Amino acid sequence: MNVPGVRFRPLKALPALLNRSRATPRPCYVSKWLQSRGLQVSTAPPANAVPLRKHLKDEAKRKKADAKGLGGPRRDGAVTARLQKWELTVGIEVHAELNTACKLFSSATAASGDITAVPNSNVAAFDAALPGSQPQFQVATLLPALRAAIALGCDVQRKSGWDRKHYFHWDQPNGYQITQYYQPFAKDGTLKLTAEDGVPREDLLGAHSLSIGIKQIQMEQDTAKTSHHPPSNYHIDYNRSGHPLIEIITLPHIHSPQTAAAVVRKLQGLLKAIDACTTGMELGGLRADVNVSVRQRGTTGSLSYSGVAGLGQRTEIKNLSSFKAVEDAIVAERDRQISVLEAGGAIAGETRGWSLGSTETKRLRGKEGEVDYRYMPDADLPPLFIGNDLIDHLRSSLPELPDATMERVQREYGLTEKDARTIVALDNGERLEFMEATEELLQPRLPTNDSLELGRMAGNWVLHEIGGFLTANSLSWSDLKMYPIDLADIIAYLARGEITSRTAKQLLEYANDGSTSRGIGDLIHDLGLQRRPLSDDEYTELARTIMNENPGMVAAIKEKGQKGKIMWFVGQMMRRGEEETIEPEKAKEVVERILAD
Amino acid sequence: MALQCLPLRSALRCRPIPSLRRQTARFASTTPSPIDVAALLSKPTWSVASLLPSTSSSPSTSSTTITSKQLHHLLRLSALPPPSSPAEESSLLASLSQHLHFVDEIQNIDTTGVDPLQGLRDETKQGEREQELGLEALREALGREKVVGRYHRRIRRVRDAGKGEGREGVEEDMGDVMGMAGKQVGRFFVVEGGKKEGG
């Protein structure tokens, strides 16, 4: 059904006022997410996501270096001196796409992060801004938004309003974005960070945790997706237009780039744990804008932002799309501002952009005041009233937050801090669920071990052994075919000494190849895998027997230093010993030990 | 006679009558005496004509004058084309100054303690209670979530394949939005970007 007489007219070209820099193409991510403000995108994908364990190892290394007092690997004397003179202040605004069925003001499907959706298929009349279309608030979008506010400890306002933020862009069909400028729905929260989250030592100032204030959280609409097709064409997909977002605005309490990246990382983890925002930064579900200012230590600047006074002039860096980009952009902007101020210049309050791999931020827009958004209350929408019973219900049924989960896993299962952090973050909590189920099943099987030991065993197997198995076969967690009971059986047999660790690893493979539905016990019995592993003395005895029979070989190794012949001894031991009971690594160790004395 | 129409005024947006307000204050300080309604209503105290600038007063004497630069800024903000000729520009400036005179007259009203009206809604306590979104209103949405995991319990929204029920105001199918496209490539709208001067 064609609405007669209404044709979509491409909006007039951007006035110079909103001119964006289109000089260099900006590399984009593997997914099809594109920037929301019409910046160029090329198709070169530099996947910059760092794997979680590598990141944790890097953080541990950096912390160790900090502890030794050497500072980070990148810092040299000049930079440290500069940083001692100048203090950085950062405020972050995070936009997170909410996990909802419908869009914010229309009943069209909100397929967030769904890159397989047909373009322009989930567009309602209001999303395309057809004349006469009216917004209708979809109440289901309140759930993830309220959960986010509660998880961040905010005061949820009983009454909040909807305001229009006017600007013209082809990804904003209405000519305005509906947001909550005057009365956001949540205010005054906090986010706690510790050294393990990535906060450097200088920021903690001896305390255990750092508290970042959250100024407010507001709900707003997302814009459409544009992609640039050189030389001057833009393709627009309105599937994302009107998608609900929350904007989380922190107070300028952050004083280092690493803390800023840690804040964004922590927010992403938190929102994922409460099912409020399930697409991460790599898929474009989370975007960060940062405000950076510097001042000399000991002085106070003349400006104040959000009630924090004494700060210098700030610049805004928009559309940062990864944690590393956040950190690098802040470092580059801080250095640029310090250079300008040391040379005697003044910082202009402008909006800048950052592209991966660059060394300096680029100016996008002039002074802050130049864009006049003409905020006004939206007359089509009634104010939002949120009931206390709903807030209480959501607070009591809020899922366990990642911090609490990590602390519980360490306390109840004896895992190390690093392991706890990894297992909580992996596979949407599925691995942790598997581990907990395994530990519970281990209790009746190994009644003499205490629960911390069992927890450690289960954790080790789920993280390292199964993890290793998955990576070796290029599988993901969802491809795993075994059940917790299988793992519990394997660990129990191993712990009781009825199978060798090599057999245990083999059983892992058997349990996952899907060809058999037998339990572990049956498998062991049918395949005759029940082998008692040899003790140290038995190894030594066997080794000495073979050595006594071959004095020539022994002499060759001891006197002529022919180390290669050690493996010959190992081979002999394996042939001599009962089938499959000799482990070559252990045998080699024993032979070397004997030959050493 | 109820001259205490202050709360009513905000709801019904009465035409403000400055002279009457002064009389209200005077009346409040003395004992209420019978009001001569006929005398009150016989003399007009205000005219609609005051909302337009009188032809005798020249534009330069009005309190707010707009420069050509301001006009161009406003036209850019509104994505309107700049004036094509000096005659058009002066006519735009003249009509804009008339509008500003109107707005000045309106802004001269004393609105201390009066919240701006955003929409005609039920602002009584009962009305607000009815509009409140509580557990009942969200019950359906809460029903479309499930808890996964026995040990590590997490909430997950159930994703249905097609358009589910329970959406507010499911509108009639408006058909394919691509019908509105002036220019398209595949299933994308196409916009010609690039730097263009003016409109």
From TrEMBL, chain A:
HAMAP family on file: GatB
Annotated GO CC locations: gamma-tubulin complex; glutamyl-tRNA(Gln) amidotransferase complex; mitochondrion
Enzyme class name: ligase
UniProt-listed PANTHER family: GLUTAMYL-TRNA GLN AMIDOTRANSFERASE SUBUNIT B MITOCHONDRIAL AND PROKARYOTIC PET112-RELATED, GLUTAMYL-TRNA(GLN) AMIDOTRANSFERASE SUBUNIT B, MITOCHONDRIAL
Gene Ontology MF: a single term: ATP binding
Chief location: cytoplasm
Domain Asn/Gln amidotransferase: 432-595
Region (Disordered): 57-76
Job of this protein: Allows the formation of correctly charged Gln-tRNA(Gln) through the transamidation of misacylated Glu-tRNA(Gln) in the mitochondria. The reaction takes place in the presence of glutamine and ATP through an activated gamma-phospho-Glu-tRNA(Gln).
Compartments where located: Cytoplasm, Cytoskeleton; Mitochondrion
Record's subunit section: Subunit of the heterotrimeric GatCAB amidotransferase (AdT) complex, composed of A, B and C subunits.
Keyword annotations from UniProtKB, A to Z: ATP-binding, Cytoplasm, Cytoskeleton, Ligase, Mitochondrion, Nucleotide-binding, Protein biosynthesis
This protein's name: Glutamyl-tRNA(Gln) amidotransferase subunit B, mitochondrial
NCBIfam families: gatB, PRK05477.1-2
A Gene Ontology BP annotation from the UniProt entry: cytoplasmic microtubule organization
Catalysis performed (reactions): L-glutamyl-tRNA(Gln) + L-glutamine + ATP + H2O = L-glutaminyl-tRNA(Gln) + L-glutamate + ADP + phosphate + H(+)
Record EC number: 6.3.5.-
Protein family per UniProt: Belongs to the GatB/GatE family. GatB subfamily.
UniProtKB/TrEMBL annotation, chain B:
GO cellular component: glutamyl-tRNA(Gln) amidotransferase complex; mitochondrion
Gene Ontology process terms (BP): glutaminyl-tRNAGln biosynthesis via transamidation; mitochondrial translation; regulation of translational fidelity
Glutamyl-tRNA amidotransferase complex subunit Gta3 domain mapped to chain residues: 62-117
UniProt protein name: Glutamyl-tRNA amidotransferase complex subunit Gta3 domain-containing protein
Pfam family, one: Gta3
Domain of life: Eukaryota
